[in-house]
Specification:
The protein has 650 residues and is α+β, with helices and mostly antiparallel strands. The strands form 8 sheets. Strands 19-18-20-21-26-25-24-22-23 form a 9-stranded mixed β-sheet, with helices on both faces. Strands 8-7-4-9-10-35 form a 6-stranded mixed β-sheet, with helices on both faces. The protein has a 5-stranded mixed β-sheet with strand order 27-34-33-29-30, with no helix packed on it. Residues 11-86 form the Aerotolerance regulator N-terminal domain.
Length: 650
């Protein structure tokens, strides 16, 4: 039956049409006003005394009639109003409701109160307080349940696992809008249950103003969390290396035991001491040339996900670098003399073209021209995933260079410029320099240049000259210098900048597994393997197996990790069940520092201290207080008053 919004004296009625019956009350009033009573004249001897008695009798009857009239009018009015069913409610109580809940299941919700995690407590309170017949939608950082009742998803909620992902406020708002209907007439309640770590916030949160947003901030009593943050292997010249382990969140006056395992074998144990800022560092000595499936472990009463850390030390494959050089300089020999590289250098007339297919990096250094036959080989080499570095000569035949470059990218050398300029700009966000500098340096002693080639290219610029012309461009396996690097033309080969430049160009040719990878980030690893076009590599750990994205090159397979894996641990790359390499993955440590957002600083939202308190508030907002029973009682009371008037008033 429809409910109408009609208010009388702040009250609403379920059947307001019945109130028209109140106009019928005018009938008894009219009858009373026009009712005439005739009195019979009877002569008596003492007329004066009788007239006084009659007058008093008339006054008494008139009062009684008025009291009865008022009582009966109120009685009828009470009955009519009772049938109209009066009630009071909030403005939104009569509107249809939609409810969408965001339940934060990120790792910081592992924090405990009274021995139970924040997530477990939130789930229990939600199941207990949400109505059994209430339809709602709920989403976490990775899962979505649309238009369900609590009985439909109770088991799923109780078995929720923690996630390393965390939606921010804008993402929560956008996701919620996809779960609400397009009906503009409904009240849309968005409930956000979270511990509200600072990283949930964004610079300018923009939640839809049409939503009724309710925040339930949960916070643990213990706000200290010790985390294994990262590890670093410092290779030594002898047969031993140092494994440095960095921790955060400790107390200065406490030492924390930390254990090092190789697979499941405990190989070392020590105690970590912390500085006043909570940072700590420990060192383990490990064998340099021995493979290690490492696991570090601590015991901490707060968050559990960051109490373990996985890493791998694998036997390193040497990067094969071949230089085709017409220069007498030995700068390339000095750059690639380390154990990480297998370096060869040839004059063009001494080169065996068939050896290029086995290389990871080919450097064209100071060649006057590039023969067509070599161009064809280099195109195949680059297309097969090799890295090509081009360094021109002052007297280079740029037409032969352009013939090669035009087939590899939209790059062309233009005229040569003779001018004394300096290299003045480093693109710090370029992949070659992204992790080289701790901060953007401004007092660097930049190299000088006497001659350079102008270039037209779509490749990103890594280094620039003072006039804005590129010094080095390239990415993704193709790097081109515009400046001849002979010492008489530039002192770049004596600059500290040359080492990270050439080292990182060579390293990019072979995506070697890092000591560890971080889940949630795009990771690429080159696996030395010879497989056919129909063969695939698999990745497995403890019965969990998946097939990663992979690209086949001669002598290697490039494996990419994005959505998988989803759990931390040490994974094996398998070819026909044979282990080719081990790779370690760890959860990001972004939630390890328990820094919480001041929810009170956010606008246009309602904050509650707990889930039960929120549902009490929502229930009060939906309450409808009915008054028809009171009007029935009033009618009975008025009927009793009428009887008393009849008996008492004479």
């Amino acid at each position: 039956m429809p409910i109408f919004d009609q208010a009388i004296l702040g009250m609403q009625f379920k059947h307001p049409e019945i109130l028209w019956a109140l106009f019928l009350l005018i009938i008894p009033i009219l009858i009373h006003l026009f009712q005439l009573r005739r009195f019979t004249k009877t002569p008596f001897t003492n007329v004066a005394m009788l007239q006084k008695v009659v007058l008093e009798s008339r006054k008494s009857n008139t009062l009684k009639k008025w009291l009865l009239l008022i009582t009966r009018l109120l009685l009828l009015a009470a009955i009519i109003i009772a049938f109209a069913q009066p009630f009071t409610s909030a403005n939104t109580a009569l509107q249809e409701k939609e409810t969408v809940v965001y339940l934060d299941d990120s790792f910081s919700m592992q924090a405990k109160n009274n021995g139970i995690s924040l997530l477990e407590k939130a789930v229990q309170d939600f199941i207990k307080n949400i109505g059994a017949d209430t339809e709602f939608s709920l989403f976490t950082n990775e899962k979505t349940f649309s238009n369900v009742r609590v009985s439909d998803i109770q088991n799923s909620l109780l078995s929720l696992t923690f996630s390393h992902k965390q939606l921010n406020l804008n993402e929560i708002g956008l996701k919620a809008n996809t779960l609400f209907s397009q009906n503009q007439g409904t009240v849309k309640n968005l409930i956000v249950i979270s511990d509200f770590q600072e990283r949930i916030s964004v610079a300018n949160p923009e939640l839809d103003s049409r939503l009724q947003v309710h925040f339930v901030p949960l916070q643990a009593r213990e706000l200290q969390n010790i985390s294994i943050d990262s590890v670093f292997v410092d290779d030594a010249l002898n047969d031993q290396s140092t494994l440095k382990v960095f921790l955060t969140g400790g107390n200065e006056d406490e030492a924390l035991p930390i254990s090092l395992y190789n697979d499941n074998e405990l190989i070392a144990k020590t105690a970590a001491k912390f500085k006043s800022n909570g940072d700590g560092e420990v060192e383990f000595t490990i064998l340099t040339n021995e493979a290690l499936n490492g696991r570090l472990s601590i015991i901490d009463n707060s968050l559990g996900y960051d109490n373990r850390f996985y890493f791998n030390i694998n036997s390193k494959e040497k990067i094969k670098v071949l230089a085709i050089s017409a220069s007498d300089s030995d700068y390339l020999n000095r750059l690639f003399r380390g154990n990480e590289f297998d370096f060869q250098k040839y004059r063009l007339n001494q080169l065996d073209y068939s050896s290029l297919g086995d290389q990871n990096v080919v450097i064209l250094d100071a060649q006057l021209s590039i023969p067509t036959s070599l161009q064809n080989i280099l195109r195949t080499f680059k297309n097969d995933g090799g890295t090509l570095i081009i360094v021109p000569s002052k007297n280079s035949d740029i037409s032969s260079y352009n013939s090669l470059l035009s087939s590899l990218s939209s790059t062309q050398f233009q005229e040569k410029v003779v001018a004394d300029v300096q290299l003045t700009s480093i693109t710090f966000e370029h992949p070659l320099y992204r992790n080289v500098f701790e901060k953007e340096v401004t007092n660097f002693q930049y190299p000088s240049v006497k001659e350079y080639f102008k270039i037209q290219t779509s490749l990103p610029t890594a280094l620039s000259l003072s006039g804005g012309n590129p010094f080095l461009v390239g990415d993704n396996g193709l790097y081109v210098f515009t400046v001849p690097l002979e010492l008489e033309n530039s002192n770049f080969i004596n600059s500290p900048l040359i080492v990270p430049t050439f080292y990182n160009m060579a390293q990019s040719s072979l995506q070697m597994p890092q000591t560890y990878q971080t889940l949630g980030k795009s990771n690429t690893v080159d696996i030395p393997a010879e497989i056919g076009n129909d063969d695939i590599l698999k990745v497995a750990k403890d019965g969990y197996e998946f097939i990663p994205l992979q690209q086949i090159f001669p002598h290697r397979v490039r494996v990419s990790f994005d959505q998988n894996p989803t759990e931390d641990g040490i994974y094996s790359v398998l070819q026909n069940q044979q282990v080719l390499q081990n790779i370690s993955f760890n959860y990001p440590r972004t939630e390890s520092q328990l820094k919480y957002l001041d929810v009170g600083s956010l606008e246009n939202m309602n904050s509650m201290d707990s889930v039960p308190e929120l549902f009490e508030y929502l229930e009060a907002e939906n309450n409808i207080t009915a008054y028809w029973k009171w009007f029935v009682i009033l009618a009975l009371l008025l009927a009793l008053i009428e009887v008393l008037i009849q008996k008492i008033v004479t």
